[in-house]
Every structure is written in C-alpha cells, then in structure tokens.
DNA sequence: GATGAATGAGAGTTCATTCAT
DNA sequence: AATGAATGAACTCTCATTCAT
C-alpha cells in the first residue's frame, strides 16, 4: 500500500502548492519538496505537470462534492439544505483560497489543457450541478420553492457561491462564515423586495 | 494623422491576448504582433509585462464600470436598476470571456504583483461595489427593498454576477442574455420561496 | 563653429560616462542625455558606439599627453621631470578614475574593436612611451641616470604609473598626491636597497 | 569516476572565457560550451553570471596567491624574494592575459557587483598586499632595505607588477620573462640614479 | 542637421522533463 | 521504484541602431 500512499502524498502537496500559486507559477520541484519525494518521482506517477494538475483537480472536486454532501439530508427541509450548501461552500472556500473557482479558469483558459482534459473537468462540474438541481427540484416538488427553471437557478446558485468566494478574498477573508451564510440564504430564499410594500 | 494612439493599440492587443490565455501563458511577443508593433516598442510604453497587464486591467475596469453605469438612472426604480446591472454584467462577461473575474485571481495569486498593484486593483473594485451599494441603499430608503446589510448584499450581488460568468463559460456561453438576466433578477428580488405556502 | 562644439560636447559626455561605467555598461542614450543632444545626433557625428569610444579615447590620450608634458622642461633635471611625470599621472588618475588604464583593457579585450582600432590606440601609447623614453635617455646622456635599457624602463615606469592608479582605487583614493609622488620618485631613483649596508 | 568536478570544470571554462573577453562580452552559453555542459547546468552551480564571475575571481586570486608564494622562502634574501615575486607575477600575467589586473576594474566599475562583492575582492587583495609588505618589512628589519613606508611601497610594488602586465600586453607579450624580471628587480633595488655621479 | 519612436537581435534566466544511476 | 543532475526550449527584457519626420 506504499505506492498509493506516495501518489496521495504528491496529490496533497500539489493541492497545497496550486492553491497558493496559480498553475504557471507553481513549480514541480516545490511540489516534490512539499511531498517529500524526489522531482523525478512525480513523473513516475503522473505523465506531466498538466496531468498532475488534472488528477489533483479531479480528486479535489470529489473532496468538494463530499464536503457539500455533508449535512445535506433527505429529512431536512430544502431550505435547510440550501443553507448547508452555502455554508459548506463558504467554509471550503475560506479554507482553500477558492481553489475550486480558480481551477475552472485555469483549465478553461490554459492551452496546455486540451479538449479531453476540459471534458473530464466539465463532467465533474455537471455532477455537482445536478446535485444542486436535485435539491431545488425536491423543494419545488414539496411546494417549498416556487416553480422555476431549476437548471438555470442551479447555475446561478452555484455561481453565487463562487461569487461569495471572490467577495471573501477581496474583503480579506475576515467575515464570519455563519453570519454570511445566513444572510445569503435569507436573501436567496426571500429575495430583496419589501413584501409589506406590495 | 495616426488613426490610433500606439499605447492604446498595445493595450487593446494585450487585452485580447490576456483574455484568451492567462497571464503566464500570454507572450509579450504575441501581444506585439497583434498590436502590429515590434517587441521592443511595448517596453517603450510599459515598464514590464506585469505593468502592461496592470494598466490593461485598470483600463478594462474603467471600461467595465462605464458599461455598468449605462442604462442605470435615478428615475428608474431600484429594481429596474438591479436588472440593468445584471444584464450589463452578463453582456460584458459574454463578450470578454469573463476577463474581469479572472483578473481578480490573476492579480490576487500571482506573486509578481506586489502589494501596491493589488491595492490599485482593490480600489477599482471598491468603487464598483460602492456603486452597487448606492443602488441598494436607494432601494431601501425608498422602501422598495427591505432592510438589509447593504454592504454584504452588495458583495453577494457582485459575487453573483461573477458567478454567472462562470456558469456561462461552463455551459458554453450559449444562453440568452435577456432571459438569464430576467430570471436572475427575479430570483434576487423575490427569492426562491413559494409565498403561498407560507 | 557650432558643429565642432556639438561634437566636442558629445565627446566630453562620452568621456564622463565611460569613466564611471565600462564600455558595455555605458549606454549611448545616457551619453546623449549628458551631452544634451538627441540619441540620433550621436550617429550624425560617429559611426557607432565603438567609434565614439575610439575617438573619445584618442582625444583623451592627447589630453593626457598634454597634461603629462605640463611642468616638464628641458631646463629641469631629468629627476625632476620624472617626479613631474609621476605627479601629473597620479593627479590625472585620481581625477578620472584611472580611465586611461582601463581603456587599454577595454580596447584590448573587446572584440568589437578590430585590429585597426587597436593599432590607432597603440600608436598613441607609443607616442606616450617615446616621450618617457626621451626623458630617460636625456638623463642617461647627462650622466644623471645610470646606463639602462631605456625602452624597458620606460615600459616599467609607465606601468608603475598605471599600477599606482590601481593602488589608489583600491585604497579608496584617499592618499595625498604630493606625498605619494615623492615616495615613488624617491623609490625609483634611489631604489630600495640600503646603500650603507653595501 | 568523474575525472573532474563539474563545478570546477565550469570555473575553468569561465576563467578562459572571461580572460579573453571582458565580463559583458562573455556569454554564458560560450562558457557552457567550453565546459562541455548545457547552459542550464551553469545555473545549477551558480546563482547568476555575476556570481559565477565572482567565484571564478576568488578562485583565481587564490591561485595567484599560491603562485606568488612559490619560490619565496624565509631563507632566501629579501632581494631574492622580491625577484621571485616579480618573476612569478610576470609569468602569471603572461599566461593569463593580466586577468588579475583587469578583474579589479571589472568589479570596481561594474554596477552589477554590489558592495558586498567588492568587499570580498578587496579582502583578497589585502591578503596579497600584506604578504608583500611582510617581505619588505623583513628586508628592512634585516637592514637589507633602507627604512621606508613599507605599506606605500607594497602598494607601489604591487602596482608596478600590475603595470608590467599592461606593458607586456601592449608590447604584444613578446618579452623574455627572466630578462624583464631581472631588469625590473634591479631597477627597484638600485634605483635609476647613477651612484658615481653623486 | 537633428531627433526620438521604433525595432529586433541577442542576452540572462527559469523550469518541465529526461535518464543514468 | 526512486532519484536529482543535466538539459535546452522558451521566455522577458535591453539597447545599439535606423529612419521618417
């Protein structure tokens, strides 16, 4: 089981380094150092820097997905699930410098990643999105949410979460996760309009 | 009779190249070629690649700001202004591959850009945010929007717009701007909850 | 007479810049700025940077030669002339960062200067040397100096003067010219040996 | 079984190239070629071209110092030691195009070399000088040399040796080392004056 | 004649990748 | 399997020189 350990070690080191630098600025040697292995060893487990990035990315998306699932439950109300979604995302973002969000652009705009790479990544995103859509659809079905284009709203919800990341990075990461999550959930659920004025 | 200022020509070429590649992958020579000038000429107008990027970025932020202002008016209702905001952002994003969003990460995570650079960028963002906050505050004051932490909501609104960009890129940029903007505005204004069920 | 003035202006600026940097580090633009002319103007008067250097060098050698002649006289004793030689050289060196010495190496080892250039320079040096040799020969003829290979001694004397420059630069240029010159002259005239012990 | 340490190989190549060109004209790639290594390899062993130059310089100064010590002995008379000094220096100079002398200027006037670099170099020179001064002081103590400012004379002697280099280079390096050394030693020991005329 | 904007050859340097050990 | 010394392609940037004005 040593082999699996070493590969995992490299993936973790890669994640750490790619989180703090962007793809181009991250040096393979730094990843090797952080993983405690030789530079050449990385090429035993990964074809190239791009492949390492890609595998790390896939792994992180799984991690992220698992994290998002945490706290979600069929018993909880869709609204509560939405809150958990936002909270978990915000926690994840805060912890890892919004790596998830940044990775999208990285893969999307770096010519080193070919079509195939991009497809792999897109598929992972689609899985994420379909999970969000599922929650929305459940809410609609239960009558808790009004009728809406759940696909588009899932996109937006997902996007909003990404946006929170930007906001948090820009504001210097100083905000309280619970409070931010509450406010955002409230906003998304109830909207901005003053109901009494209607 | 120069048709165009050469500095502007370079900025535009830089924008084009940086939009399609990321900072590290963009080659100075390619920018020069696209601008129709010699490699050295770029260094006549900009100290370094990083400075070129920064100036291009500042210019684009102004452009973006101007674009966002378009269609906003004191006479229009705050809700209509929110719609315009979202629509304009979506248009801009669609047109320019979400460069604005990506630039944030670029500057935020690239060690080549020092504190001073980041400050410059942050200031532009703050101007944008304060404009959004102004619209929100007007809405609150007019009683159209309910009472809320307008600062945080501005962050989120701004973030959401950024998020839309991601969504559009992921979905391959095929969506209709008007429709997307309508749906999102509606979502933000009225929320997701089914009012009748309350 | 304006033309001559401008050429001279450039030569003087070149001298100043080449004195403080070496050939490669001296920028043509800096010379132009110091001369108060445009960069292109330099190329009106000189074929290339190398030619500018060369002409500046020739001019400085003349200047140096003239400086060395100053104070020399047929009436003065050869010993006094030797003293003047050393003193003038030391003064010149101190004033101009040993540019004369450095120029030798510059021209001697820089492949940008071809054979012809080197010959021009060598000729100037030979004139200098023959002047020193003349003084020595006069001293020998007058019986003040003992019989010796005046050609070689001229080389050495000239070399010694160059060496003083190095010493002065290394020691930070703090020494008193009069005193140094006296000591050296005394050394060269009387030698190091203790005569009484013989 | 490496025949030679690779770092040493590079240093030797650097020495050869820097001896024939000056710092600015010497290309790193040429050094690499001469060393039989790739361009990148040089940067495995040295931080930069400037650092390579500096280390090469330090190494050469040690080499020079060792060369100078050769043939010197406590048993030999100070005069003989002076002769050895001059002869060894002349040999070294002749062999290596007066690189020692030229390096002084290189380091002294090239802004790429900072204060710290210069200090390192100065210290090596001071060691050289103190060795020369020691010989002089011994001679004075033994009564063979007359009383004199040994510090200044060491400077001059050292300078003279540097000067010989110039002379040899100018004269095309054709002179006989033994003869030149004899003449110079004689000049320094006995002076130029005709004793009988006093 | 005088200029300086424009140029591009050529330099130093980095770093993903290879391969002998 | 694991390594890291060695590599060279590819990059940014400088600056002598040109030439349209």
Description:
The structure is a homotetramer of 198-residue chains. Chain A has 198 residues and is mainly alpha-helical. Chain A has two domains: 1-46, Orthogonal Bundle (Arc Repressor Mutant, subunit A); 48-197, Tetracycline Repressor, domain 2, CATH 1.10.357.10. Helices cover 74% and strands 0% of the residues of chain A. The longest helix of chain A is centred in the middle third of the chain and has 27 residues, at 115-141. The interface between C and D is large, with 62 and 62 residues. Chain A binds a DNA duplex (21 and 21 nucleotides) through α2 and α3.
CATH class of the largest domain in chain A: Mainly Alpha
Q: How many helix segments of chain A?
A: 9
What share of the residues of chain A lie within helices? over 70%
The chain pair with the largest interface is:
C-D, 62 and 62 residues
Low-pLDDT runs of 5+ residues of chain A are: none
Structural class, from secondary structure content of chain A?
mainly alpha
- CATH architectural designation of the largest domain in chain A: Orthogonal Bundle
Order of helices and strands of chain A: HHHHHHHHH
Approximately what portion of the residues of chain A adopt beta-strand conformation?
Answer: under 5%
Strand segment count of chain A: 0
Query: What profile does the largest beta sheet of chain A have?
Result: none
What do the pLDDT scores of chain A average to? 81
Shape of chain A: elongated
In angstroms, what separates the terminal alpha carbons of chain A?
A: 65 Å
Number of domains of chain A: 2
